[in-house]
Design brief:
Layout: H1 10-33, H2 46-59, H3 66-84, H4 90-113, H5 116-142, E1 162-165, E2 168-170, H6 178-197, H7 204-221, H8 224-243, H9 248-266, H10 269-288, H11 291-310, H12 326-333, H13 344-380, H14 385-396, H15 405-421
Antiparallel strand pairs: 1-2
Helix pairs in contact: 1-2, 2-4, 3-4, 3-13, 4-12, 4-15, 5-6, 5-7, 5-15, 6-7, 6-8, 6-14, 6-15, 7-9, 7-10, 8-14, 10-11, 11-13, 13-14, 14-15
Length: 427
């Protein structure tokens, strides 16, 4: 059971908050504050996650379920196979296994320790943080890569931005890489829409400013992933309206605030410039990938089907846990890169082989499906919180690049928050 533990296990709640803040500011530590410790800070959240697991085991707060048990078994078997049958590097095997045996269990610990009030409180903090975050990415967008604000990992003077369009770079915000910025604002979008649908749960002035900031963040990010993620969240809101017509007024309010915010931003040069860069990249990338259908087919559905088709060519036991990550590649070859697949499903199958790899994929898909089922039940009862959080989870849990620590962190967090928002639903 997912229990309401308000007033109990407060220390563990603080641990979850620490995990959250380290997720948001890990990149800032690695780029600006402690650049000399950039490499060890890559796994700065791992000790926190491990401590939470040990505390949960001690207190009997790590719920046993088929998802968790299967993932732990696969992780442990994967370590053994990687060391004795595959690449033979213990450090690489443990780095890959931590995804399955440390961060994945944390999903259920967060769900068991946090309660609904904690989930909403974290959302309010997230929305508040998004306001200075959009100011930061605007500064990064318009600053040269040599500027301090754009400094890369370890204080790299070459800059942390990735190529965008028209000479502008995709800003990373406080994160190590630009994907963190896109994931952050996609996460923000799910909460912003939820709070507009439940306006009494959030200060309207802060929410309005954050909404305008979210609109500005889309072109500033030069990220198609963020654009599509926001559309998905808006689509979830429309579905909620169709199922519960009493929310129509709130959806109209969201649209009104959006149009007003867009109108105000269009009067500023900084927004029109970033929009031009964003649309240019969008059009160029779409042409290269065959239009919108090509984008969705190549980047999402295509990546999934391609990984499954190629699974028959992968060794039965794969190439070894951790080998498909950038860190694993660096330890094994001395160079960063994707040794056999950039896509997540391809990496998982490549590391673990077709049987265990596809099993991990099915666990992730079935977990999201189970969360969706409970979220729909809550939606039918007029509770939108799990449903709107699900709009972000469907993006990052099934196919999120868990080899990248930031993506893994957001997946872990959102999974736990949805479970916590379900309260006493059995998972």
């Amino acid at each position: 059971m997912i229990e309401n533990l308000t007033g109990k296990n407060q220390l563990m709640k603080y641990g979850i908050w620490l995990y959250f803040f380290l997720l948001i500011f890990e990149g800032a530590l690695r780029k600006w504050i402690l650049p000399g410790l950039s490499t060890p800070l890559l796994i700065v959240r791992d000790p926190v996650a491990l401590w939470l697991i040990l505390m949960a085991l001690k207190k009997g707060l790590l719920p046993s379920n088929i998802y968790l048990n299967c993932m732990l078994v696969i992780g442990l078997i994967g370590i053994f196979i990687a060391i004795f049958l595959d690449h033979g590097d213990l450090a690489v095997a443990l780095y890959g296994a931590r995804i399955l045996i440390i961060h994945f269990p944390l999903i259920f610990i967060i769900g068991n320790i946090f309660n609904r009030d904690d989930v909403e409180r974290l959302g309010r903090v997230l929305v508040f943080i998004s306001i200075p975050m959009v100011l930061l990415i605007a500064t990064q967008f318009y600053s040269p890569q040599s500027a301090w604000v754009n400094r890369g990992l370890g204080g790299d003077l070459a800059g942390a931005g990735f190529s965008g369009a028209l000479g502008f770079y995709r800003p990373p915000g406080t994160f190590s890489f630009t994907n963190g910025n896109a994931l952050f604002f996609a996460f923000v979008a799910s909460y912003v829409i939820y709070f507009w649908l439940n306006p009494k749960r959030m200060n309207r002035v802060v929410l309005t400013i954050a909404t305008i900031g979210l609109i500005a963040a889309i072109p500033l990010s030069i990220s198609r992933s963020l654009f599509f993620s926001v559309l998905i969240s808006l689509g979830f809101a429309m579905i909620a309206t169709l199922r519960k017509p009493q929310f129509i007024g709130h959806v109209v309010l969201i649209a009104g605030i959006g149009f007003i915010g867009l109108g105000l931003l269009k009067e500023t040069n900084f927004f029109t410039t970033s929009t031009h860069a964003f649309t240019t990249r969008f059009e160029n990338a779409n042409k290269a990938e065959g239009g919108i259908s090509g984008v969705l087919g190549t980047r999402y559905i295509g990546g999934m089907s391609s990984a499954l088709k190629k699974s028959s060519k992968i060794p039965f036991f794969g190439y070894g846990l951790g080998m498909g990550t950038n860190a694993g590649a660096m330890l094994l070859t001395g160079n960063k890169g994707f040794l056999f697949s950039e896509e997540e499903w391809g990496r998982v199958i490549g590391e673990l082989g077709p049987v265990m790899g596809i099993s991990v994929i099915l666990i992730r898909l079935s977990l999201v499906a189970k969360l969706a089922l409970f979220a729909i039940r809550k939606l039918n009862n007029g509770d939108l919180l799990p449903w709107m959080l699900l709009s972000f989870a469907v993006v990052v849990i099934p196919e999120g690049q868990w080899a990248q620590p930031t993506s893994l962190g957001f997946s872990t967090l959102i999974g736990g928050l949805i479970i916590a928002s379900l309260r006493r639903q059995r998972i």
